[in-house]
Amino acid sequence: MFKITSLLCALVLLLAGWTGCSKANPPASGGSGESATYSCPMHPDVTRSSPGQCPKCGMDLERR
Ligand SMILES: [Zn+2]
Hints:
By secondary structure, this protein is α+β, with helices and mostly antiparallel strands. The chain is built from 1 helix and 3 strands, in the order αβββ.
């Protein structure tokens, strides 16, 4: 029983990390000159190269 629970937990974590990563990753098409990074104040791992909303909580991304 414990094994199944821990396995499920790991799977959920993996899925959450995977979807969060694929959403947070901006299209790699550098060359605009500007190197501004926008990140969520609540989720520092969420970064975008353009302004927008956090896919996890919907907050406006802050420039840094
Ligand atoms: Zn967020």
